[in-house]
Design brief:
heterodimer; A: ABC transporter transmembrane region fold; 9 strands; B: ABC transporter transmembrane region fold; Rossmann fold; 21 helices; 10 strands
C-alpha cells in the first residue's frame, strides 16, 4: 500500500506545468473570501459610524469600500471559477495522456487482465476523478490557511485578544472538524461502498438471470437476498445521514459561536465602533473554513482513485513487449508453426497448452476445434505476442516470434474474434483503423469485398454515419463484416479466425463465414471454432486440415 | 417534473411537515440571532455596557445559536432520512415490478442499463431530497417569514425587500434559458468527446492488433483539449450568470444598506434596528440564490426518476390462476394462440395451433424472429396470449393453462435457455435450483446426464466450487451444461423445454446431452427450439414457424421430401447436404 503522501506528491508533480495558473486560482480564491471579509467589515463600520450621527464626512472611505468589496467579491469569484476550472480541465487532459502513455506500452498480458468492460470503465472513471483533486483537495486547505493568516493579522491590528480567539476558532474548525468528520464516517462509508457493490452484483444476477430464476421458481431467494442487502444498506445510510447532519449542524454552530465569542472578548477592550466589524468579519472569514470538512471526504475518495490508477500502471512485469526485432520477415505467404509449446496464464494456473505443436503451411488452412475454454484463444494470444509461451517456440514463416518486435508480428496478422470492438466514430473510420493511410476508395473496396457496401450506403450518412457507442447501431453480422473489411484493408498474409460466428444466428453465421472464407483464398488461415459449421466443413474438405484441441484445464477467469 | 417524486415524499409521514416547520424555525432563529447580536453590539457600543450587564444577552445569543444549529441539523436529518427511505422503497418496488414483468420484458431492455437505473440512477435522487427539496422550502418560506417580521419593524426596508426579491428568480429564469439553450447545443458533442478516452481504452487490444495504439496518444490529447474548450465555453456563460446574480443580490443589499444608513445618520431609525436589518438582508436573498444552484442537480434526479417511473408504469401480466397442475396431462394444446408485444403492435405469434402429446418430441424451427422463443415463453406461462388459449388435455377434460398456478406449472417443467445463467454460488447450488431439496446423488446423476460430471470433478473444489460473478471461472460450454443439469435434476418433469440449449456445446458434448434426452422415460415430453439438424432429426414432429405462423409441420423426412419451407431453411443453414 502506498502512503497517501507519496500518492499526493505524484499527483502534485503532474500539476507542475500549470503551477502558475493553479497559484493564480489560489490567489483569486483567497481574495474572494477576503473581499467578503472586507465587505462585511466595512458595512458594519459604516453602520456603526452612521449610528454616531457625526455627519456624512465621518464616513470617509467606508461607502466606497462597501461598493468596492461588493463588486470585487462577485468579479473575483467569477475569475476564480474560470481559472480553477481551466486548471481542472487542463489537469484532465494531462492525466489522460499521462495514463495512456504509461499504460499503452505495458505488455498486453497485463491489459487483458482487465478485459472486462467494467474494470476498464472503473480505471477510466478513476483517472477522470483525479481531475477534481485541485479544486476539491489541494485548494481548500491552502485558501483556508491564507485566509486565516490574513484575517487574524487584520484582527491583531485591532485587538490581540480578539485575534487570538479568532485564530483558535479557525484553527480548530480547520483541523478538528474535518478530522472528526473523516474519522467518524470512515467505517460507515466503507461499508456503504461495499454494500452498494454487493447490491449491484446481486441486481445484475437478478436481472440477467431472470429467465432462469422465474423458470425455476427462484425469485423468492433473489428477493430475500435483495431485501437483506437493502436492509443493511439502509441501516448504514441512516447512520451516515446522522453523521452528515451532525456535522452540518456543528459547522454552523462553530461559525456563529466564533462570531459571538470574538465579540464577547472584544467588548470593553475595543472601540465600540469596531465591535460590529469583528463579529461580521469572523462570519465572513469562515467561508474558507467550512468547505474543509467536505475536502476531507474528497481526499479519501481521490486517494483511493489515485492508488488504483497507480497500481494498474505499476504492477507490470519488468519485460516490455516492444523489443526491437532482430530479424526480417520474408514477403509473400507465411507459414505458422507452434513447436512443442507449453503455456499457462499465471504461474499458479493449470496449463492451457502442453507440448502443443501445429503447422499451417503457407497459404494453407488449419481448423482447430475444441470446446470453449479448451485453449483456442490462447493460440491467438501467443501468435499476436500478447503473451509469451512458457516453453517451446512460435514461428511466423521460419522466423521465431521472439526475434520479431510485436509490431512486426502483428503487421502480418489479420485477427477476427467473436466480439468485434467498434469505436464510437464513423463507419469509415472504423474500417480505416486497419490502415491509416488508406484512401476512401480503398476503404470502400474493402467494404465491398466484405459485403458491407450496400449496408453502408443504406445508412443516413453512408460511410460517414456514426456507429454509436461500441457500434450499438450495427447488428452482429454487420459488426463481423466490419471486422472482415478491416483485415482485408490491412491485407495481412496470415488470418486468425477465432469463433467469428459464435454470436450469430445460423443463417447470418453462414453468410458471414462464406464471405470470410471466400476472401481467405490464398492466405494462411488458422480457424478456431467450438463446432464446425457446414460452410467451414466444406472449406476443410477442400483445402484444410483438422486439429482437435482437448481442454486441459478449467480457466481461472 | 417532480410531482411523482413529491408524492413519494408523502409516504414518509411528517417528513415534509418537519421540513416546513424547520425552515420556518430556521428563519426565526436567524433573525433571533441577528437581533441579539445587534443588541449586544448596540449596548456595548452606544451605552458602553460592560460584560456583567450583558451576560443575559450573551447567554441568550449562545442559546439561539445552538438552537439554530440544532434546527439546521434536524432539517438535514429529516431530508436525509426521507431520501434514504424513498430510495429504498422505490428500488424495492421497481425490482419487484421487474421480477413480475418477467424475462420477456427484461430481455427487451439492456440489462446493464436496468441495473444502472436501480443503483446509480436511484442514488441521484439523493440530490432531490437532500439538496433541492430543503432549498425549495427555504426559498419559499424564509423570505416570507422575514418579510412578516420586517413589516412591523420598518416599512421602507419591507418595501425594498418585497420588490427586489422577485428580481432574483426572474433574472435566474432568463439567464437559465439562454444558458440552457447553449448547453444543449454543445451537450451531445461534449458527451461524445468525454467518452472518447473510455472508447480508446476499451478498444485498446483492437488498436494493438492494427499497430495503431501508439498513435492514439496525440488523438487523446487533441480530443481532451477540444472537450476542455467546449466545456469551458459553456461554463463561462454559466459562471457569468452566477456573477450577474451575485451582483444583483449585492446591489439589493446595498440598496437596503444605503436606505438604512441615511436614515440612521439623520435619526430616522435606531442603531440596533439598523444593524439588525443589515445583518439579515443577505440572509433574505440567500435561499433564492441557493435554489437556483440546486435546480440543475434536481433535473438529473428528475431524469433518473422518469426512467424509474417508466419501468413502474409497464403493465403487469393479468392475474394468474390458482389451480394445481393435474396429475395426468395427456397433451398440451395451443388453440389459435396469438401474441403481440405491447410496443410495436407487431404480432410475434399469429393464430398458432399446436398439439404436443405426452412423451413426444416436438421441435420448433424457423429463422430468427419467427416467433420460436415467444412460443416457449407462452408455453411456460411467462407471457399470456393476446388471443387464443393454451390448454392441458387431461382425463377429466381440458384445463386452460391460465387457470393454473403458473409457479406450480413451471415447477413441472425443465427449462434451458440458449445461454443458461449461473448465479454466483457453488456449482451444486446452481444445479439445485432445479430442486432445492435434492440429495448429492441426484445432483451428480443430473450432471452426468448433462455431460458435466467429468469437468466438475476436475474443478478445485468439485461441486462446491463457486462459479464467480458471471460464471467467469467456467467456459461458456461448461456453464451451459450446468444449466442443463438443472433441468435434468427435475427427474419428474412433465416436459423439458430447450431453447437452443445445446448450441454452445461442441459436437461431442452435444451428442452426449442429446443421448440423455433421447433416453428419457416414455412419459416425458420434449419441446426443443433448434437450428441444428442433429437435434431436430429425431423429433416426432417438426413445426416450422415463419413470421409468427406455422407454415409447415411433419417429420423431418416428410418435410425434407416436400422441399418447402423446411427444406429452404436447411439450405440456408447449409445443412441440407448432410440431411
Amino acid at each position: 500500500m502506498r502512503s497517501g503522501a507519496a500518492v499526493l506528491w505524484q499527483l502534485l508533480r503532474l500539476m507542475r506545468p500549470f503551477a502558475g495558473q493553479a497559484l493564480l486560482a489560489l490567489l483569486l480564491a483567497f481574495l474572494t473570501v477576503m473581499s467578503s471579509v472586507g465587505l462585511l467589515m466595512s458595512s458594519a463600520w459604516l453602520i456603526s459610524t452612521a449610528g454616531l450621527r457625526l455627519g456624512m464626512e465621518t464616513l470617509s472611505v467606508a461607502p466606497t469600500a462597501v461598493r468596492f468589496f461588493g463588486v470585487s467579491r462577485a468579479v473575483l469569484r467569477y475569475l476564480e471559477r474560470l481559472v480553477s476550472h481551466s486548471v481542472t480541465f487542463k489537469l484532465l487532459v494531462k492525466l489522460r495522456v499521462w495514463f495512456y502513455e504509461r499504460l499503452e506500452p505495458l505488455p498486453t498480458a497485463r491489459l487483458q487482465a482487465f478485459r472486462s468492460g467494467d474494470l476498464i470503465a472503473r480505471v477510466v472513471g478513476d483517472v477522470d476523478e483525479l481531475q477534481n483533486i485541485y479544486l476539491r483537495v489541494f485548494a481548500p486547505p491552502l485558501v483556508a490557511l491564507l485566509v486565516t493568516l490574513a484575517t487574524v493579522g487584520l484582527f491583531a491590528l485591532i485587538d490581540t485578544a480578539a485575534a487570538v480567539t479568532l485564530l483558535a476558532f479557525m484553527a480548530a474548525g480547520a483541523t478538528l472538524l474535518p478530522l472528526l468528520t473523516w474519522w467518524a464516517g470512515q467505517t460507515v462509508g466503507r461499508d456503504i461502498v461495499q454494500t452498494r457493490s454487493a447490491l449491484s452484483a446481486h441486481l445484475v444476477d437478478s436481472v440477467q438471470g431472470l429467465a432462469d430464476s422465474s423458470a425455476y421458481g427462484d425469485t423468492p431467494r433473489l428477493l430475500a437476498g435483495f431485501d437483506a442487502l437493502q436492509t443493511r444498506l439502509m441501516r448504514r445510510e441512516r447512520q451516515m445521514v446522522r453523521l452528515d447532519s451532525a456535522q452540518a449542524g456543528f459547522s454552523l454552530w462553530w461559525v456563529n459561536m466564533a462570531a459571538a465569542v470574538v465579540l464577547w472578548v472584544a467588548i470593553g477592550r475595543v472601540d465600540g465602533v469596531l465591535l460590529g466589524t469583528l463579529a461580521l468579519g469572523t462570519l465572513a472569514a469562515f467561508e474558507a473554513i467550512t468547505p474543509l470538512a467536505l475536502a476531507a471526504q474528497h481526499l479519501g475518495k481521490e486517494l483511493e482513485a489515485a492508488r488504483h490508477v497507480l497500481d494498474v500502471l505499476a504492477s507490470a512485469p519488468a519485460a516490455g513487449e516492444t523489443t526491437t526485432g532482430t530479424m526480417e520477415l520474408p514477403g509473400g505467404a507465411l507459414s505458422v508453426t507452434f513447436e512443442r509449446v507449453c503455456f499457462r496464464y499465471a504461474p499458479d494456473d493449470p496449463p492451457v497448452l502442453e507440448d502443443f505443436s501445429l503447422h499451417v503451411p503457407p497459404g494453407g488452412l488449419v481448423v482447430v476445434t475444441g470446446e470453449s475454454g479448451a485453449g483456442k484463444s490462447s493460440l491467438v494470444n501467443l501468435l499476436a505476442r500478447f503473451w509469451p509461451p512458457d516453453a517451446g517456440r512460435v514461428l511466423l514463416g521460419d522466423v521465431p516470434l521472439a526475434a520479431l518486435s510485436a509490431e512486426q508480428a502483428r503487421a502480418c496478422l489479420g485477427v477476427m474474434t467473436q466480439r468485434t470492438y467498434l469505436f464510437n466514430t464513423t463507419l469509415r473510420e472504423n474500417i480505416r483503423i486497419a490502415r491509416k493511410t488508406a484512401n476512401d476508395a480503398e476503404v470502400e473496396e474493402a467494404a465491398r469485398r466484405a459485403q458491407l457496401h450496400d449496408f453502408a450506403l443504406s445508412l443516413p450518412q453512408g460511410y460517414d454515419t456514426f456507429v454509436g457507442e461500441n457500434g450499438a447501431a450495427l447488428s452482429g453480422g454487420q459488426r463481423q463484416r466490419v471486422a472482415l473489411a478491416r483485415i482485408l484493408l490491412k491485407d495481412a498474409p496470415v488470418w486468425v479466425l477465432d469463433e467469428v460466428t459464435a454470436n450469430l444466428d445460423p443463417i447470418t453465421a453462414n453468410e458471414v463465414m462464406r464471405a470470410v472464407l471466400a476472401q481467405a483464398e490464398g492466405r494462411t488461415v488458422l480457424l478456431l471454432t467450438h463446432r464446425l459449421s457446414p460452410v467451414e466443413r466444406e472449406a476443410l474438405a477442400r483445402r484444410g486440415q483438422l486439429v482437435r484441441l482437448q481442454g486441459l484445464h478449467v480457466p481461472a477467469g | 417534473m417532480d410531482k411523482r417524486l413529491m408524492a413519494e415524499a408523502r409516504l414518509v409521514r411528517g417528513a415534509l411537515l418537519a421540513m416546513v416547520a424547520l425552515s420556518v424555525a430556521s428563519a426565526l432563529l436567524i433573525m433571533g440571532q441577528a437581533s441579539l447580536l445587534s443588541q449586544l453590539i448596540a449596548r456595548a457600543f452606544l451605552q458602553n455596557a460592560r460584560h456583567d450587564a450583558l451576560v443575559s444577552v450573551f447567554v441568550a445569543l449562545l442559546g439561539v445559536i445552538t438552537l439554530r444549529a440544532l434546527a439546521h441539523a434536524a432539517s438535514q436529518h429529516s431530508a436525509g432520512l426521507l431520501a434514504v427511505r424513498v430510495k429504498h422503497d422505490l428500488r424495492a418496488r421497481v425490482l419487484r415490478h421487474l421480477l413480475r414483468l418477467g424475462a420477456a420484458f427484461t430481455a427487451g431492455e439492456r440489462s446493464g442499463e436496468l441495473v444502472v437505473s436501480l443503483t446509480s440512477g436511484i442514488e441521484t435522487l439523493d440530490t432531490f431530497f437532500r439538496d433541492y427539496l430543503p432549498a425549495l422550502f427555504a426559498a419559499a418560506l424564509v423570505p416570507l417569514v422575514m418579510l412578516a417580521v420586517v413589516l412591523p419593524l420598518d416599512l421602507l426596508t419591507f418595501v425594498v425587500l418585497l420588490f427586489t426579491a422577485p428580481l432574483i428568480p426572474i433574472f435566474m429564469a432568463l439567464i437559465g434559458m439562454a444558458a440552457g439553450a447553449l448547453a444543449r447545443s454543445q451537450y451531445a458533442q461534449m458527451g461524445r468527446m468525454s467518452a472518447h478516452f473510455l472508447d480508446v481504452m476499451q478498444g485498446l487490444l483492437t488498436l494493438k492488433l492494427f499497430n495503431r495504439s501508439g498513435a492514439q496518444r496525440e488523438t487523446i490529447r487533441a480530443i481532451a483539449d477540444q472537450f476542455r474548450h467546449a466545456t469551458m465555453s459553456v461554463l463561462r456563460v454559466a459562471f457569468l450568470s452566477a456573477l450577474a446574480l451575485e451582483l444583483l443580490a449585492t446591489i439589493s443589499v446595498a440598496v437596503v444598506a444605503v436606505e438604512i444608513g441615511i436614515r440612521l445618520m439623520y435619526g430616522g431609525i435606531a442603531f440596533e434596528q439598523a444593524l439588525f436589518l443589515l445583518v439579515i438582508a443577505p440572509e433574505f436573498y440567500m435561499p433564492l440564490r441557493q435554489l437556483g444552484a440546486k435546480f440543475h442537480a434536481a433535473r438529473d434526479s428528475a431524469a433518473a426518476a422518469d426512467r424509474l417511473y417508466s419501468l413502474l408504469d409497464a403493465p403487469l401480466p393479468t392475474a394468474q390462476g390458482t389451480q394445481l397442475v393435474p396429475s395426468t396431462v395427456n397433451a398440451i394444446r395451443f388453440d389459435r394462440v396469438s401474441y403481440a408485444y405491447a410496443d410495436g403492435q407487431r404480432a410475434a405469434l399469429n393464430e398458432v395451433s399446436l398439439r404436443i402429446p405426452r412423451g413426444a418430441h416436438v421441435a420448433i424451427v424457423g429463422a430468427s424472429g419467427s416467433g420460436k422463443s415467444t412460443l416457449l415463453l407462452l408455453f411456460m406461462g411467462l407471457l399470456q396470449p393476446t388471443s387464443g388459449s393454451i390448454v392441458l388435455e387431461t382425463d377429466a377434460g381440458d384445463v386452460p393453462l391460465a387457470s393454473l398456478d403458473l409457479e406450480a406449472w413451471r415447477a413441472c417443467l425443465g427449462y434451458v435457455p440458449q445461454r443458461g445463467y449461473l448465479f454466483n454460488m457453488s456449482v451444486a447450488d446452481n444445479v439445485r435450483l432445479g430442486d432445492p431439496h435434492a440429495a448429492h446423488e441426484a445432483i451428480a446423476r443430473a450432471c452426468a446426464r448433462a455431460s458435466a460430471a467429468a469437468f466438475i470433478a476436475r474443478l478445485p473444489q468439485g461441486y462446491d466450487t463457486v462459479v464467480g460473478e458471471n460464471a467467469t471461472r467456467l467456459s461458456g460450454g461448461q456453464a451451459q451444461r450446468i444449466a442443463l443439469a438443472r433441468a435434468f435434476l427435475r427427474e419428474n418433469a412433465l416436459c423439458y423445454v430447450l431453447d437452443e440449449a445445446t448450441a454452445s456445446l461442441d459436437d461431442e458434448n452435444e451428442a452426449a446431452v442429446l443421448a440423455s434426452l433421447a433416453a428419457r422415460p416414455a412419459w416425458q415430453t420434449l419441446v426443443t427450439v433448434a437450428h441444428r439438424l442433429n437435434v431436430v432429426r429425431d423429433a416426432d414432429e417438426v413445426v416450422v414457424l415463419d413470421g409468427g405462423r406455422v407454415v409447415e409441420r411433419g417429420t423431418h423426412a416428410d418435410l425434407l421430401a416436400r422441399g418447402g419451407a423446411y427444406y429452404a431453411l436447411l439450405t440456408a443453414y447449409g445443412e441440407v447436404a448432410y440431411a
